[in-house]
Design brief:
The chain has 202 residues and is of the alpha+beta class. 34% of the residues lie in helices and 27% in strands. Strand 1 and strand 2 form a beta hairpin.
Length: 202
């Protein structure tokens, strides 16, 4: 039984997302994650360029039902429990195609995570998505501090944190798909985020 047929015939056993709003940036649509997203994510996500700096809880090689399992057993239950918020990323020019995912998590040192199809990296798209979810974290959810953890070698992710006013507050080591690597912890307070936006006229 293929994944799409499983979604259709066995949908009753899956959690469904709570009322989590979608959003948009200048170039992107952010839509709440749902079980029907599994086939597209399964087709795009298992690329070394995407997974190498993700925590090693991501199985590698990625199993053929990996996206379906993650969405149904981890992503949607977390959304239902109010512990996680996940959105797919889609270009406004191609709204039917998923190019990435961005998440917010109630996890002490890892409140935000994301991935983007390498074909769309280097264009500032993830910076747009991060700005939207940062606003959601502080203004909608009401948190006072956002923390992110990343491999020190993940220069693209570091540039987003630097550009958006975050501060590096710690160094450690963590286990990633590509192995145990030096890791950094970055943070920004709600007040610092709002000041950063005000300085930019946002």
């Amino acid at each position: 039984m293929d994944i799409l047929r499983l979604i259709i015939t066995d949908a009753s056993r899956w959690y469904y997302p709570a009322m989590i709003p979608g959003g948009e940036t200048r170039r992107l649509l952010l839509r709440p994650l749902e079980i029907a997203d599994a086939p597209q994510i399964q087709a795009t996500f298992p690329q070394w360029e995407i997974v190498r700096f993700l925590q090693n809880r991501v199985p590698w090689p990625y199993p053929p039902d990996g996206a379906l399992y993650y969405i149904g057993e981890i992503g949607l239950p977390g959304m239902e429990n109010g512990e996680a918020w996940h959105w797919t990323l889609r270009l406004k020019t191609e709204p039917g195609r998923i190019v990435g995912v961005i998440s917010l998590l109630c996890d002490g040192e890892a409140n935000r995570g994301f991935w983007l199809d390498p074909a769309h990296q280097g264009q500032g798209l993830m910076s747009e998505a991060c700005e939207w979810v940062n606003d959601f974290w502080f203004d909608t959810l009401g948190f006072s501090l956002l923390r992110v953890s990343k491999a020190a070698a993940n220069l693209a992710s570091r540039r987003i944190s630097e550009k958006q006013g975050m501060r590096k507050v710690g160094e450690t080591e963590s286990d990633y798909v590509s192995g145990r690597l030096p890791s950094e912890i970055w943070e920004i307070t709600a007040e610092e985020w709002r000041a950063w936006k005000a300085a930019r006229g946002g």
